[in-house]
Design a protein that fits this description.
This protein is an alpha/beta fold and about 280 residues long. The chain has helices spanning about 10-15, 35-45, 65-70, 75-85, 95, 115-120, 125-140, 150-165, 195-200, 200-215, 220-230; strands spanning about 5, 25-30, 50-55, 90, 145, 170-175, 235-245, 260-265, 270-275. A 6-stranded parallel sheet has the order 1-4-3-2-5-6, sandwiched between helices. Helix 7 (about 125-140) packs across helix 8 and helix 10 packs antiparallel against helix 11. The longest helix has 16 residues, at about 125-140. The termini are far apart. The chain binds adenosine monophosphate (AMP). Adenosine monophosphate binds next to helix 2 and strand 5.
């Protein structure tokens, strides 16, 4: 089947009503890279039809400049979708998703949305759950795939699906990295070649965290201090946050559950995030 591109909500709803196949859905903001493409490949293993949305959602940007600068590359994105066998791309307009006459339904923010990014980016997760729940209502998928690059987002969506009783199975997919270790991100396109090299310090910090943990350093405060010292060695890396939390609750870790290391670091003014679960 060739790629079907739908750029209006009404047209998508008509298509959806006429569709009887099971759907795997991957919401994205475009500027597609191999991390997204891996989700599309994985999506094929679940539903019979793969639907990808491309929409740069204004309500999840707490910084308007970040929204303006977000890369928009629809033509290239469509070629990539066609090449990996996506069936339908839904690329609605802002007016389609946020009609002027409609007051968006306010979905309660799950507890897991409050720490970490919830602290650094006020309003971000409210924007995420607003758009994802709207998309879920329009696309009505049986499966939805998300990347663990945005670990907290996966937890937030899982909790939202539970609380709102969406009949959707959430599939969490591993982080795709460059051969040198940098987590792929649409924001990486805003870095200079020198910035891309500097950004490798982020995944190196996660490697250090794994090493220290495996060597028996199990005190979260000391671990965070060691990671902070490591990042601070490079004056071009500006720490926004370094946290170690319980990977389920995202609250301070206990001796029982597994631990998540979550980093947010500015490189050339671009805020990059990365994470790993300590083993
Ligand atoms: P975005 O377009 O940044 O909103 O991302 C769309 C989806 O792709 C989200 O579920 C992200 O977590 C996922 N994603 C983005 N980058 C990566 C990556 N490097 N590895 C795995 N998933 C990713």
């Amino acid at each position: 089947m060739s790629l079907h591109v739908i750029q209006s909500r009404a047209e998508f709803e008509a298509w959806r009503q006429a569709t009887t196949t099971t759907i795997s859905f991957v919401p994205t903001m475009g500027a597609l890279h191999k991390g997204h493409l891996a989700l599309f490949e994985e999506a094929k293993k679940y539903g019979q039809t793969v639907v990808v949305s491309i929409f740069v959602n204004p309500t999840q940007f707490n910084d308007p400049k970040d929204f303006e600068k977000y890369p928009r590359t629809l033509e290239e994105d469509l070629k990539k979708c066609a090449a990996v066998g996506v069936d339908v791309v839904f690329a609605p307009t802002a007016e389609d998703m946020y009609p002027a006459h409609e007051t968006p339904k306010r979905i309660p923010l799950p507890e897991v949305a409050k720490p970490l990014e919830g602290q650094s980016r006020p309003g971000h997760f409210q924007g995420v759950i607003t758009i994802v729940s709207k998309l879920f209502e329009i696309v009505k998928p049986q499966y939805a795939l998300f990347g663990l690059k945005d670990f907290q987002q996966v937890r937030v969506i899982q909790e939202m699906v539970k609380s709102q009783n969406f009949p959707i199975t959430i599939i969490a997919c591993p982080i795709v990295r460059s051969p040198e270790g940098l987590a792929l991100s649409s924001r990486n396109t805003r870095l200079s070649p020198a910035g891309l090299k500097k950004a490798l310090g982020i995944s190196q910090t996660l490697t250090l965290a794994q090493q220290l943990f495996q060597q028996g350093l199990h005190d979260p405060k000391t671990l965070v201090q060691k990671l902070t010292d490591f990042v601070s060695e490079d004056p071009d890396l500006k720490i926004d946050s370094i946290d170690i939390v319980d990977a389920q609750t995202l609250l301070p870790p206990t001796s029982k559950g597994s631990w998540l290391v979550a980093l947010a670091v500015f490189v050339e003014g671009v805020r990059l995030i990365d994470n790993c679960v300590l083993k």
